[in-house]
């Protein structure tokens, strides 16, 4: 093989590697997004359970144990904050 053919093969390998790295990054972002969606569903469910009092018609919305609502709300805000870089990267 001459030098030109080796250079062509080298650049093809570099391009293939870069494609794989981009694909890996995309899959990692998708995985993180799915994890965040599951966490969001869990937090929503827990909030809904806390806001209902069994046996009441209509269900009472309070009292929620002190600090629990703010704790869940804070986790939800943190979840939203960590989700934004994923969206920014996918849009760009």
Descriptive report:
With 92 residues, the protein is mainly α. It has one domain. Helix content is 79%, strand content 0%. It contains two helices and no strands. The protein has helices at 3-51, 68-91. Helix 1 (3-51) runs antiparallel to helix 2 (68-91). It is rod-shaped, with a radius of gyration of 24 Å.
Question: How do the strands and helices of this protein lay out in sequence?
Answer:
Blueprint: H1 3-51, H2 68-91
Helix pairs in contact: 1-2
The ordered H/E elements are HH
Helix content: over 70%
For the secondary structure, the number of strands is 0
* Derived structural class: mainly alpha
Uncertain segments:
none
- Tally of individual helices: 2
Please give the radius of gyration in angstroms.
24 Å
| Main sheet attributes: strand count, strand direction, barrel closure | none
Supply the number of structural domains.
Answer: 1
Strand content: under 5%
In one word, what is the shape?
A: rod-shaped
Q: How would you sum up this structure in a few lines?
A:
This protein has 92 residues and is mostly helical. It contains two helices and no strands. It has one domain.
Q: What keyword list fits this structure?
A:
92 residues; rod-shaped; mainly alpha
